[in-house]
Amino acid sequence: MRKRKLKKAMQYEIFLLPAFMAFTVFTIIPLIKTIAYSVTDFDGVTREYNFVGFRNYISVFQDEMMRHALFNTLFYTLCTMVLINLIAIPLAVLLDKQTRLKTVERAVFFFPSIVSALLLGYIWGYILSPMQTGALNSILANFGIGPIGWTSTEWGAKIAIILVAVWTSTGWHATVYLAYLQSIPGEYYEAAAIDGAGKWQQFKNITIPLLAPGLTVNTLLLLTNGLKVYDLPYALSNKGGPGYSNYTVTQMIIQRGLSEKQYGPSTALAAIFILLVTIIAGVQFMTMRKREVDIT
Fold it and tell me: What's the distance, Cα to Cα, between the start and end of the chain in Å?
């Protein structure tokens, strides 16, 4: 009987083997090698390298560019996570209304999330170009307004990157909220209306608490995607400009490791970043799950 049960269980679990092998080859092994290389003077070419302890980790915190990249990444993640959630929830409520054009309306807001972020970055980089030939400046020139340096300053580029990210991703996350909204029984709202609850009271006391699982999912996705962002800031701000003011951690890892052949500091930064992402994502997930229990 035990052998029969074990054989039956293996029939299902064997289908997980290809996924497990791919995860091991492309994630687990590179992760182990990254941590191992981070405490050596590995140069990416020779097979001989020496143990250097935490020297690479110390150099990460002494490097101004790396510290700035870490700040940019955290700032981008926090701003996009808050703004997208604040906009996506009311947008999902509006899209949940039964109108003749509801399918078109949902498609319009969802479409920007389909296009590659790298492509959108180059498109918006042309629109917001500080040169006179930029699309927006060309339009303003017809009204006698001189060229405006939309992305020519550090904070101007930061704001542009965040706004474009919000425009790109809000529709996708609103769709997630929409799915949770459609699972809320209409009887709840009918009972609340009979008791005299207004639209705002229904939204605050019914919609928001029952959207707690969706808030957990969206916040976790925004957090992890924001921390590993690379393509949008790179394309929109002309490779993280002006200067290195809008570099992200991912860009620093790639540049130091591949372009400048500084494998030690780049792998150390990657190891620190992996640990940071794991801690932040874990704390956020546990906090949001506890919040779900408290609300419901």
Answer: 43
